[in-house]
Design goal:
heterotrimer; A alpha/beta; B alpha/beta; C alpha/beta; A: alpha/beta; nine-stranded mixed beta sheet; 10 helices; C: alpha/beta; ten-stranded mixed beta sheet; 12 helices; 24 strands
């Protein structure tokens, strides 16, 4: 089927626009009606396996209680004592299921209306398919306000549903001076698709540590996640992400330091095998002076897989004294695999320090030889070196996150 | 060497200066005559380095009030390069690396701009090479350093020798050597110190800015000034440095505090 | 800040080559169609294969769209309002320089390229191109003794049609891109170089391009072939008078290096850049590509780009032969409203191929200076390596520096390393130099020169000084 037909058919299959997201739904649907699916001519999608995008539209998006039952039999690891867990059930308002701890409040409809969609719009991405797809189909939203007196951590789990395509939307408003440790887990499922739109606003002096574990677990699972973050002055945002195991995954972190003078740390890891394709398209823009960025993106591609990194950094004239560093490090472990790294630095301010680096290589032979010469077998030695390679990203996750077994998943799967 | 008829080279009066809108110097007074060696000592942050940068005319430092005169003329309006040409030399604590700019070429251009001021003929490449090779001996420096970029990849000691080499070439009237001894091992310190001794002339003067006594074992100052909180709080002869070595800055600090409370 | 302003003044040197030569010119009427192409081909007495080549390219061009991918806005060229052939009125090419119009000789002399026997550069052979035609080539006889062919492309078409037919369009296919197709249809003149097997070219070869007419598009074509185990160093220089209108320059350069051959291609580009308000100036839309066809062959591009209103130029290397080497060294200085989008493509196909990219961009005024590059390693290019370094220097807070280094690898036994940085003239370095008595202006020149030194070192000795002057660097002997 032609992709435009798929798009129209899907739009027809959606329930009528309704609820407090009605306006958003119309915007997304209108866009898709006009633009259809992305094509190879769209620079941002040129490297994407566009066939795999179809699953977001061709899988049914209507979820009934039977689907949920079979799906939510997932046995998740035990939750931390000090970490409130929210499991997102795509057909229900997620707020209903949880007892909000002290320091977290539900946003009221007016607050939602005032804020929703603004951050993602200010990221100013042309032909924004990822966002439109979500806007068109998200029926509910998890919209929370984090207050300064919060002393709990937060965990948000979003499992896919077998044979379905789901859309989830989250909005977090983190109030001045608050501190939050947020852990998000995306889990794939057989023949499933999930797309997420997350908007986070960090008011001034906020500190947010954001761990994102995205694991496609079974066959033919796909994920698209757009993460739009606005940082006000003196805020600190650190994002640590791992993507692994998806047939198709696309992660789009977009961070706007709307007044500059904030600090952003991004450490991302993506690991692909078999015929998977995982892409990170990041965008960081400084709208005021004295901003800081430290970005490290690591990718490892083996077998027939394909890792993509596209990293845009914009330092306009008003962002004097910005310090930004971006490093893209890639390991290519097989002859059939492929790495694409495409940094884009746009700078119009003279008093800035911006550095950028990119490498593509294999595991260092001397290091490998050293381990082998100490009697370690090849497979083990490779795993050890990979573990070392991942450590820069993995070590940033809280210890309690280890129970999601992402380290075990990422390491034994590597074959030369 | 010092006599009452000696000409005053540098005269600083009630100097107040700031950097990034913060006042660092709170009224410095200092007078240096021909043939004299002065040492300025003091803790980190006492304003020693600021004083040297202000004399050399660093654009980030603002003079709020007071005066600096060189041989009787006000130099505050002069650009850094003009100050250098009339014979004010600053040996940097941390000489900056300048990749891509050839050291030999840099030394030649600098030397010629000073020579022009002195109404001496400018040196061509060959003449200059002869001169620089002769001066290299003073600092026992390997000629290979001439072919590299300015200070790039030099060790701490090599950078300081390159500073003294520049001093040897520019033949300044007054040399302000900012922590020239820091980061040097004993051998390097001796070489640098003997270089400074060899280069001192009856009609020139030297200001050593230092943290420790050890450089002063190699070069004997005529005057020792103690700086604290942006002022010279005590002046004496070499004995003062030795006292300081024995009792540490606390002893001086206490004295000042007493003085302040007395006020 | 006053200091920044002064730095800006230093990099803004007036354009010295903006004069017009008053000379009677033969032009064909404006406009482009099949008849115009036939007319150009006829004027140049071309063999049938070349006319067909042109017509095929024209047919392709009609189907293509003018690119606007690099996000630059510019007033579009009206292709029917251009003259596609202009030549100083004189009979077919003169046998000796004595017969060349003295005004032309004078023009080149004014540009610093004396052609007459008494004054010509002693170790450089020059092909001088004025608007659409080559007017003189020096040292031809001496080169011929070594079997080296250096002449205008028109002459090569009539004298060595087999070589032209064999190689032209094989590196840059006629449908490669919009401007390459246009060039293939209407190219007027340019240089041809052939270095036979085993010959090391005894002197530097150089072409000097001069646009004189305001409404003439310049479409020169250069073809350099280095046979097995031969080597050559070639340099091109470019200037144009000042006109208020934009003049199009769409050249195609093709290089072919066979086994163990080496080609060094240097460019000093100083086309008129337009005035301070961005009025006028050359559109420099150029396709340059070299193929390392043979084992252990090497192609090295170096460029100093200071002129043109807009530059789109990506001198590239296709590294086919095993162990072949590609290099790209670039300095691009932009000021006022200039836009330069330049970089390279290194396509690794053969085993153990190596490439190196060093790019230095300096942007001042409100100019936009972009490095855009591609390093691609194909599955068979085992053992290949790339190293890239892209540094930008910004002068003033209105200028922009963009870096788009695209990396693609499909071969695990290969290494790609890329580094990029952005800086401005460091206050500390400036103060250090000043505190040694050196003039402010000279300090700035020294620092810019130091920033560019990696690239200067790659330029042929004879031209390093020209490049030096171009960047308004007054320091003697700091290069070469």
């Amino acid at each position: 089927m032609k992709s435009s037909t798929i798009c129209q058919k899907w739009l027809k299959s959606l329930p009528p626009t309704q609820g407090y997201l009605k306006k958003e739904q119309s915007i997304g649907r209108e866009f898709l009606l006009q633009q259809g699916m992305p094509t190879k001519k769209d620079e941002a999608w040129r490297l994407s396996n566009l066939n795999r995008l179809n699953s977001f539209l061709s899988l049914p998006t209507i979820i009934d209680s039977e689907d949920i039952k079979s799906n939510f039999t997932y046995t998740f690891p035990k939750k931390d004592e000090n970490r409130e867990r929210i499991i997102i059930n795509p057909s229900k308002n997620p707020i209903l299921d949880i007892n909000l701890p002290n320091g977290i409040e539900k946003l009221n409809n007016r607050e939602i209306e005032e804020n929703l969609g603004k951050i993602v719009k200010s990221s100013n991405v042309k032909n924004d398919f990822s966002v439109s797809l979500n806007q068109a189909s998200s029926p509910e939203i998890l919209a929370l306000k984090i207050k300064q007196n919060l002393n709990q951590s937060l965990e948000i789990v979003i499992p896919s549903i077998e044979g379905k395509s789901i859309s989830t939307r989250i909005f977090l408003l983190i109030e001045e001076g608050a501190k939050l440790d947020l852990l998000q887990i995306f889990l794939g499922n057989n023949n499933s698709a999930q797309n997420h739109l997350i908007e986070i606003k960090l008011e001034s002096k906020v500190e947010l540590t954001h761990g994102l574990i995205s694991l496609g677990e079974d066959k033919e699972s796909s994920s698209i996640c757009t993460l739009a973050v606005e940082q006000l002055e003196k805020s600190k945002y650190s994002l640590h992400s791992i993507h692994h195991g998806w047939d198709y995954a696309r992660f789009e972190p977009r961070i706007i330091q709307s007044k500059g003078d904030a600090s952003t740390i991004i450490k991302g890891l993506q690991v692909t095998k078999s015929k998977e394709q995982i892409a990170t398209h990041s965008l960081i823009r400084f709208e005021g002076p004295n901003g800081k960025l430290d970005q490290l993106q690591k990718a490892v591609a083996s077998e027939y897989s394909h890792c993509i990194f596209n990293g845009s950094i914009a330092v306009p004239q008003k962002a004097q004294k910005t310090e930004a560093a971006q490093l893209s490090r890639n390991l290519l472990l097989s002859k059939r695999a492929r790495i694409d790294s495409k940094p884009e630095l746009e700078i119009v301010a003279d008093d800035v320090t911006c550095t950028h680096g990119a490498t593509v290589s294999q595991l260092q032979e001397e290091e490998l030889f050293y381990l082998l010469s100490r009697g370690i077998d090849n497979e083990h030695a490779n795993s050890l070196l990979l573990k070392g390679y991942y450590d820069e990203v993995i070590s940033n996750f809280p210890k309690s996150a280890r129970k999601w077994n992402f380290i075990e998943k990422v390491i034994p799967n590597i074959k030369k | 060497m010092i006599s009452s008829t000696s000409e005053t080279i540098l005269s600083i009066k009630d100097l107040h200066a700031s950097v990034e809108d913060q006042e660092i110097l709170h009224g410095v007074n200092l007078s240096v005559k021909e043939g004299e060696i002065h040492a300025i000592m003091g803790r980190n942050g006492s304003g020693k380095s600021t004083l040297s940068k202000v004399i050399a005319g660093h654009p980030s430092y603002k003079v709020l009030s007071g005066s600096i005169q060189f041989k009787g003329t006000n130099i505050l309006e002069l650009e850094p390069e003009e100050r250098a040409r009339i014979g004010i030399f600053l040996g940097f604590q941390y000489p900056v690396e300048i990749p891509g700019v050839n050291n030999l070429e840099f030394l030649r251009v600098a030397t010629n701009s000073r020579r022009k001021e002195l109404l001496k003929s400018e040196l061509d490449t060959f003449e200059f090479e002869d001169l620089v090779k002769e001066r290299l001996k003073i600092v026992e420096m390997d000629p290979a350093f001439l072919e590299r970029s300015v200070n790039e990849g030099f060790s701490g000691g090599e950078k300081k020798r390159n500073e003294i080499l520049q001093m040897a070439l520019l033949e300044p009237v007054i040399s302000i050597l900012d922590e020239t001894d820091s980061g040097l091992d004993i051998d390097a310190l001796r070489i640098v110190a003997s270089g400074i001794n060899k280069l001192s002339q009856p009609n020139s003067a030297t200001i050593l800015i230092t943290h420790y006594q050890r450089l002063l074992n190699e070069i004997t100052p005529d005057f020792v000034h103690i700086m604290a909180d942006g002022k010279i709080i005590k002046t004496g002869n070499n004995e003062l440095a030795i006292d300081l070595e024995k009792s540490g800055y606390d002893f001086i600090g206490k004295n000042t505090k007493d003085k302040e409370t007395a006020k | 800040m006053t200091q920044t302003n002064t730095v800006e003044e230093i990099v803004s040197q007036p354009y010295k080559y903006g004069f017009i030569t008053e000379i009677e010119t033969e032009k064909i009427p404006k406009g482009l169609n099949e008849d115009v192409i036939r007319l150009i081909s006829k004027k140049k007495n071309e063999p049938d294969f070349l006319l067909k080549f042109r017509l095929r390219a024209y047919e392709q061009w009609l189907k293509m769209e003018e690119p606007d991918w690099s996000g630059l806005t510019y007033s579009k060229v009206d292709y029917q309002d251009l003259v596609y052939y202009a030549a100083p009125k004189q009979d077919i090419k003169k046998k000796s320089l004595d017969e060349v119009d003295p005004k032309l000789l004078e023009t080149f002399e004014k540009l610093g390229i004396p052609l007459s026997e008494q004054k010509r550069l002693s170790n450089v052979a020059v092909d001088a191109v004025f608007d659409s035609v080559s007017i003189a080539t020096t040292y031809k006889e001496k080169l011929a003794e070594h079997g080296v062919i250096f002449c205008s492309i028109s002459e090569a078409v009539s004298e060595y049609p087999d070589l032209i037919e064999k190689y032209m369009g094989t590196v840059v296919p006629i449908n490669d891109n919009f401007f390459a197709a246009l060039n293939s249809a209407v190219f007027s003149d340019g240089s041809f170089v052939f270095i036979p097997k085993g010959v090391e070219c005894p002197m530097e070869l150089s072409s000097y391009f001069r646009i004189n007419s305001g409404d003439t598009g310049q479409f020169e074509r250069t073809l350099i072939i280095a046979e097995e185990s031969s080597s050559v160093s070639y340099l091109e220089g470019c200037t144009a008078p000042m006109f208020d209108t934009n003049t199009l320059h769409a050249a195609v350069v093709e290089l072919v290096a066979l086994d163990n051959a080496s080609i060094k291609y240097s460019t000093v580009q100083n086309w008129y850049a337009g005035n301070e308000e961005g009025v006028g100036g050359i559109y420099n839309f150029v396709t340059k590509r070299g193929e390392c066809r043979g084992k252990k062959s090497k192609i090295s591009w170096s460029q100093v780009e200071t002129g043109s209103a807009i530059t789109w130029k990506y001198p590239s290397c296709v590294l086919q032969g095993d162990n072949s080497i590609g290099e790209f060294y670039s300095i691009a200085l932009t000021n006022n409203l200039q836009k330069a989008d330049t970089g390279t493509k290194m396509i690794h196909i053969g085993k153990n191929t190596k490439s190196k990219i060093v790019s230095k961009g300096i942007s001042a005024g409100q100019s936009k200076n972009s490095y855009r590059g591609l390093v691609s390693i194909s599955p068979n290019a085992e053992g290949s390596r790339n190293y890239s370094q892209c540094d930008s220097m910004l002068i003033g807070d209105q200028a922009s520096a963009n870096t788009y280094p695209y990396i693609q690898s499909k071969q695990p036994q290969s290494n790609i390393e890329h580094e990029a940085s952005t800086c401005r003239i460091s206050e500390d370095q400036l103060f250090y130099l000043q505190s040694r008595g050196i003039d402010f202006e000279e300090c700035v020149s020294m620092l810019i020169s130091g920033f560019c030194s990696d690239v200067f070192n790659e330029l042929p000795m004879e031209f390093a000084s020209e490049a030096d002057k171009l960047l308004a660097l007054k320091l003697e002997g700091s290069v070469g």
